[in-house]
Amino acid sequence: MLMRDPQTESYLYDVLAQSYREGYQVVFTSALPLRGRFNSVAYSTLLSRRFVESDLLRKSSKSYPLPNATHFAIEGGLNTALVGDVPLEASTLCPVVTSCENIIELQSGNSNFSCDKSLSLRQFPQTFPMPQLETIVMWHRGYNAQGTHILCGYSRTGDPSFLQAKEGVFIPVVGSRASGKTHFLSALRMLNPHLGALYINGNTPPDAQKIRQMCKSVQDPEKTLILIDDLAYIPTAAQQVLLELGPRFRAVWVAYTPWARWHSSPILTALSGCSRAVLLAPASISDGDICSLHEIPRDMYTEGMLPAGRGALVDAGRVQAFQVPDEVYQSAHNAVQAYQE
Predict the structure, then answer these.
(1) Could you read off the pLDDT of 231-269 as tens digits, one per residue?
(2) Which SUPFAM superfamilies has this protein been placed in (predicted)?
(3) How far apart are the C-alpha atoms of 271 and 265, rounded to whole Å?
(4) Is residue 190 helix, strand or coil?
């Protein structure tokens, strides 16, 4: 449009050039490089991978970083704010995971961002350690005083990630092979030491009668999680028993790898269209067929990849990326005992 209307171009340039004096900020997108005088009014520029690959000057430079998928190379003033006075053409790769309003506050030096200006643009760390018991207890007392949520792992900023789970709810844990489903179930026991756990392994599945005996032998089902691994191998009759007795427990976590005939599972049929789920290493929204997933979080990736244990918590339409902690440092018995003390 500007090429067809030089007068409008002049007016727009005057507005942009006076932005600092007038006290406003401008965020704009462009499919083409900024040229001429407009290039001088851009405080910072974020460049996508596709743009860098199509730009001959940047692509041919050995020192210029090539962004991964969903990442951007940063040039200009924001680059200096992130990496300091370093002679780089562009900073390390960063995903855009914040709103335009927060980017404007970041540029203008708002006090809310003074503690760490790079936090809003920092990519997800690849791993997090299992927090110490004292930290777990503090998180539950500070964020989960009513006991209505289950701690699942870390958010991108290192804060705890909780998922709301009312008593007796069934929550699917969906992921491909080697995505970290078994480790996630183990981590749940450590991250929620005030709750007991009944583990059912699909690789050596008990029959319906055995599962009924196991469930009825639990003394405090309302304080116990049922953790089901490899649901696909659990017989239909046994699944019917779990559907019958599961609502007596604090929550039932159902881990499985999607298979062609998953609709034949009584449990998954009952969960179809659920509002809460855990998706491990989801590649697209089609991996969330079991629940109401509308988008993949923008900060899901690290260096353009999905590490093991990276997932999304779907909670009544809201989706949050999270990371399952790496190691289990204490036994479940010690954790429960220390929590009670």
Answers:
(1) 999 999 999 999 999 999 999 999 999 888 877 899 999
(2) P-loop containing nucleoside triphosphate hydrolases
(3) 10
(4) helix
Rounded CA-CA distance 78/329 in Å is: 40
Is the pTM higher than 0.70? The answer reads no
Neighbouring C-beta atoms of residue 254, cutoff 10 Å: 28
What does the block give as tokens for 122?
A: 């920092």
Instruction: Specify the residue for token string 């090429």.
Output: 3
Cα(42)–Cα(28) distance, rounded to whole angstroms?
A: 9
Burial of 241 (0-12, 13-18, 19+ CB in 10 A): buried
Residue 279 Ramachandran class (φ > 0 left, ψ -120 to 50 alpha, else beta): beta
Tell me the domains of the chain and their CATH numbers.
6-121 (no CATH), 133-340 (3.40.50.300)
The CA-atom distances, in angstroms, between 211 and each of 172, 256, 262 are 19, 18, 21
Indicate the pairing of strand 94-95 with strand 71-76. antiparallel
Q: Extract the tokens encoding 249.
A: 């427990």
DSSP string, 212-280: HHHHHT-S-GGGEEEEEE-GGGS-HHHHHHHHHHGGGSSEEEEEE---TTGGG-HHHHHHTTBSEEEEE
